[in-house]
Design goal:
This protein has 708 residues and is α/β, with parallel strands linked by helices. It folds into four domains: 83 residues, no CATH class; 192 residues, Rossmann fold; 179 residues, von Willebrand factor, type A domain (Rossmann fold, 3-Layer(aba) Sandwich), CATH 3.40.50.410; 177 residues, Rossmann fold (3-Layer(aba) Sandwich). The chain is built from 20 helices and 29 strands. Strands 5-4-3-6-7-8 form a six-stranded mixed beta sheet, with helices on both faces. A six-stranded mixed beta sheet has the order 20-19-18-21-22-23, with helices on both faces. Helix 1 crosses helix 6 and helix 3 packs parallel to helix 4. The longest helix is centred in the middle third of the chain and has 19 residues. The chain is flat, with a radius of gyration of 31 Å. InterPro entries: ECM_Assembly_Org (IPR050525), EGF (IPR000742), EGF-like_Ca-bd_dom (IPR001881), VWF_A (IPR002035), vWFA_dom_sf (IPR036465). Its main location: secreted. It is found in: Secreted, Extracellular space, Extracellular matrix. It holds the Pfam family VWA.
Length: 708
């Protein structure tokens, strides 16, 4: 190793120690309440969220967590905030660290303003009145809502706000979040130790106090010397010298960087202080100079010998950002591959290679992915049944053995077949798991695609279509949405689609698709017209529909009314704030017998259920979902019109012998109506109803923004 330069740094009876950023010492007995706000949005991603968790656990290591000293709590925020644990829950750092490790990434939009409003409204859970309030925001800095006012209110109320940058935030974004002076309240998490040291100076007061003898006096000392350029984003005034230790001795390979949280402390004490301590400072090669991080990863110098890679979404299989398998992907995935003469043998083998590459990026030991493979031309051949192979290696071998079929291209016929039979396993259909159909074709179909594609969507199957660029119109017709149609020119361009397609497929696990406030009431016919067994089907249907919403007093509230001769409230809108209790209440709903007076039930909902006394929220969108066979013995049209005149949306689900004309007049327009042949079919229409409730009739599966 060549020595490029050398300097001597003299420190006569001085040593560098960590003190408060403000330069003031606080009594060691003073308590602090620390609340971590962890960004759990899609812009952060699961990989960087894990980095946030690692940062939080390291912070716990240097905090004196104790009910009488430092208390810590965590809120994860995205589209809405979620209290992971309050300040009063954990009394030791070990307990807090384990709780942080268990936090699960939620996903959603980045709404820091909403998170701060939550803090201001509900306060620090478990906080002490006299303890200073510290907020540490871990984020990429780009809020999708207005956070200026709630942050200003928080700072004006005496809260100290730190901003810790995760991923690649700009200084200006973080500065807008933090308290002043920003140089002392903004840090970057790329280098854990430096950022932790910065927070340490304000947060671990008892530890700081124990390090400084009462005879010490604190003086400010500006920049020493550096032979290494510091990052421009660091706005600190002081230089940290880091050096490796060998048996307790300092030697040979220190680094220098600006640190806003170090100052020089002079001491008159002679014990354990080196006279004329000499540090040899070398300018050395950066371990990142060789560009070790692959696939667009960012290299971070940890020590003079070591580095770490900040990997983009989808990478991180090893230290250098090799592709990583997603471990929490739960779908039934069926490949439908064109095996016609127009596709050709070469195109068919190219498609098989792509399927294997995509599966390698998705599947892991803990991934809950069942895979099937169908080849089509004049007819459809199920080459691999859904979930037929339990090991990944056996699955890949089976794909290798699939032989090219040949024939004409009948894509519509193939879509109809796999929609009906392709997702069936040995245990039947897994209706609780997303069904994804990926169609790979390079040739135009000889039959119609419209009705088969619609049939697949009605069975809640998400279709992704992949083919050459000239096929874009047909691919869009197959998928039903341009965002679900992927084109390529050449093998390399096809392989480059792997990450995007994997994120679409595995993004379907996202819980809670509805992020806007909603008061939702189900009006369920429990009369003899429906029957006891069919009423059970309806209850299961309602249970499954509500699982797609975030049940929360600030987001989605759900109420339920059952009716026959008389309406009966099963539960009001403000009765439950969790999905589990609500589902148990639905299970207990009794069958009422009697005649169906739908008009009376709708009027009851308007006058009673949708009243402020029953939990309705002014200014929040209100939707009534009517589930009936349509045979009402009273006039329901007048009551339905009264609801609409009050700004309430009605969605009518008619089953069995429901009269379409009558149902349409109740719903008000065809887009607000669902007609089903039998009660057994309701389980296939859950997402259809969800999409209608969300008002996005053309949205794709779970109303998820798949363009992100």
């Amino acid at each position: 190793e060549s020595q490029l330069a050398m300097q001597k740094l003299m420190a006569d009876k001085e040593t560098i120690v960590k003190i408060l950023s403000s330069g003031k010492l606080i009594q060691c007995s003073e308590a602090i309440d620390v609340l971590l706000l962890m960004d759990g949005s899609y812009s952060i991603g699961k990989g960087s969220f894990e980095r946030s968790k690692r940062f939080a656990t390291k912070l716990c290591d240097i905090l004196d967590i104790n009910p009488d000293r430092v208390r810590i709590g965590v809120i994860q925020f995205s589209t809405k905030p979620k209290l992971e644990f309050g300040l009063e829950i954990y009394s030791t750092k070990e307990e807090a660290k384990e709780a942080i490790k268990r936090i699960i990434f939620r996903g959603g939009s980045t709404e820091i303003g909403r998170a701060m409003k939550y803090v201001l409204r509900k306060g620090f859970h478990g906080a002490r009145e006299s303890a200073p309030k510290i907020i540490v925001i871990l984020t990429d800095g780009k809020s999708q809502d207005n956070a200026t006012l709630p942050l200003r209110l928080a700072r004006n109320s005496g809260m100290t706000v730190f901003a810790v940058g995760i991923k690649h935030p700009s200084w200006e974004d973080l500065k807008s979040l933090a308290s002043n002076p920003s140089e002392l309240h903004v840090f970057y998490a790329e280098n854990y130790d430096d950022a932790i040291n910065g927070l340490f100076t304000t947060l671990t007061q008892s530890t700081v106090c124990s390090d400084i003898h009462p005879a010490c006096r604190v003086v400010s000392q500006f920049c020493l010397r550096t032979t290494v350029d510091a990052e421009k984003e660091y706005h600190g005034k002081h230089v940290c010298w880091k050096s490796k230790k060998d048996g307790g001795k300092q030697h040979g390979k220190p680094m220098a960087t600006f640190c806003p949280f170090y100052k020089l402390v002079s001491t008159a004490l002679d014990d354990n202080v080196y006279d004329n301590m000499i540090l040899l400072v070398f300018a050395i090669a950066d371990p990142c100079d060789s560009g070790p991080c692959l696939n667009g990863g960012t290299c971070i110098m940890e020590t003079v010998d070591e580095y770490s890679c900040l990997c983009p979404l989808g990478y991180g299989g090893d230290k250098n950002c090799e592709p990583a398998a997603i471990t929490d992907c739960t779908v039934d995935l069926l490949f439908l591959v064109d095996g016609s003469w127009n596709m050709g043998l070469e195109g068919f083998h190219q498609a098989k290679g792509f399927v294997k590459l995509l599966l390698q990026s998705i599947m892991a030991s803990s991934a809950m992915v069942s895979v099937g493979f169908a080849q089509y031309s004049d007819s459809v051949r199920m080459e691999i049944g859904m979930g037929q192979y339990s090991t990944f290696s056996d699955l890949l071998k089976a794909i290798d053995w699939i032989r090219f079929k040949g024939g004409n291209t009948f894509t519509g016929r193939a879509l109809q077949y796999v929609a009906e039979y392709g997702f069936k396993t040995s245990d039947g259909f897994r209706n609780s798991i997303p069904h994804v159909l990926m169609v790979l074709s390079n040739s135009k179909s000889r039959d119609s695609l419209i009705f088969p594609a619609q049939y697949a969507k009605e069975r809640e199957i998400l279709i992704l279509s992949v083919g050459i660029s000239s096929m874009i119109n047909e691919l869009t017709q197959i998928a039903g949405d341009t965002r679900m149609a992927f084109t390529f020119n050449g093998a390399q361009e096809l392989h480059n689609k792997v990450l995007e397609l994997r994120n679409k497929i595995c993004g379907l696990n996202t819980p809670g698709c509805f992020s806007k406030s909603l008061d939702l009431v189900f009006a369920v016919d429990a009369s003899n017209n429906v029957g006891r067994q069919n009423f059970r089907y309806i209850k299961g249907f309602v249970r499954n529909v509500i699982s797609h919403f975030d049940i929360d007093r600030e987001l989605t509230q759900v109420g339920m009314v059952i009716y026959s001769d008389k309406p009966r409230t099963l539960f009001n809108l403000d009765a439950f704030d969790s999905e589990g209790k609500m589902k148990r209440a639905i299970n207990s709903a009794p069958f009422l017998h009697g005649n169906a007076l739908t008009g009376k039930a709708l009027q009851y909902i308007l006058e009673d259920t949708l009243s402020i006394q029953r939990g309705v929220r002014p200014g929040v969108q209100k939707v009534v979902v009517l589930i009936t066979n349509g045979q009402s013995t009273d006039n329901a049209l007048a009551s339905a019109e009264h609801l609409r005149q009050n700004g309430i949306i009605i969605i009518a689900v008619g089953v069995g012998n429901a009269q379409s004309a009558s149902l349409l007049r109740i719903a008000g327009n065809p887009k607000s109506m669902i007609s089903l042949w039998s009660y057994e079919d309701v389980k296939h229409s859950e997402m259809n109803l969800v999409r209608k409730i969300l008002g996005e009739l053309s949205a794709i599966y779970f109303s998820l923004d798949l363009s992100s």
